[in-house]
Amino acid sequence: MNSIKTFYQHLLAFLTNEAFWVKVSTGIVKMVMIIVVAAIASKVLKIAIHNIFKVRQKAPIRISERREATLLRLLDNVVTYVIYFIAFVMILDTFGVEVRTLLAGAGIVGLAVGFGAQSLVKDVITGFFIIFEDQFAVGDYVRIGTFEGYVEEIGLRVTKIKSWTGEVHILPNGTITQVTNFSLHNSVAVVDVSVSCEGDIERTEEVIRELLAELPAKYEDIVSPPELLGIQNFTNSEVVMRVTCETKPMRHAFIARALRKEIKLRLDEHGIEIPFPRLVLYNRREETNQATTNA
Questions:
Q1: With the CA atoms of 69, 80, 49 and 120 taken in that order, what torsion angle do they form, in degrees rounded to the nearest 10?
Q2: 110 and 11 both lie in a single domain
Q3: Residue 27 CB neighbour total at 10 angstroms
Q4: Which CATH number covers residue 7?
Q5: Model pTM score
Q6: How confident is the model at residue 15 (pLDDT cuts 50, 70, 90)?
Q7: How far apart are CA 83 and CA 38, in angstroms?
Q8: CA-to-CA separations, 196 to 210, 236, 242, 263, 272, in angstroms, rounded
Q9: Could you tell me where the DSSP H helices lie in the chain?
Q10: Judging by DSSP bridges, how do beta strands 227-234 and 158-162 pair with one another?
Q11: Main location per UniProt (predicted)?
């Protein structure tokens, strides 16, 4: 009974200790203020960084838009991590935690963990060189391994790729060994046009060339006028002509579909037929009867 009574006395003294509650309330208020200041500082720094990049866009000498978007995302992440880490350390110091001792211990533990977390270190180093060498940037269409899509975000540890069907693939940078970037240079649209063997090939080529000369003014994604290379192949029923066109990066599929439509409509206007399956039937019985009659 005495031990229980003593426990309740200590608990009551602890709960009614004004100095303790003043310290706790003061610490909570400081913690809230630190979090609010950190959020405001993070917002202000991000706005400042965005404004700096807007000013650079008007400068005569500037880096590419792709790299600007990538660096902007990366700096946003770095600002968030740094500010909230500092806020966390300040909160610990507010509650009386020895920050110096903690940081010293964290350094030793971090060194030990670093040997065991080599994959993480590899991810960070690879991410740095991806950004430094400008291998690909946010908004580029790339193929990495079996994944293909637009780059949503590049961080120091992971890269996010969004496929055309909407899936987002998160790839550790250390696993990126080969990258195919489709957005660095202009693309080429290739279209094969089939016409009937019975048609006038030279007239068909003339009609197609007249059409191709008109298309750059109609489609802004065309970089240079489309070119009719000539006859690519022919079979028993068709002659295949090949048309190529240089387009802006990743616009070759759209231009190829547009070329097929425009060429089909123009051929119809001039009465030029495209090949279609044909079936010829021979009646051997009639041939036998005719041979018997002649005999």
A1: -40
A2: yes
A3: 14
A4: 1.10.287.1260
A5: 0.54
A6: low
A7: 6
A8: 20, 9, 15, 14, 8
A9: 2-15, 18-57, 65-94, 99-116, 118-132, 201-214, 252-269, 284-294
A10: unpaired
A11: membrane
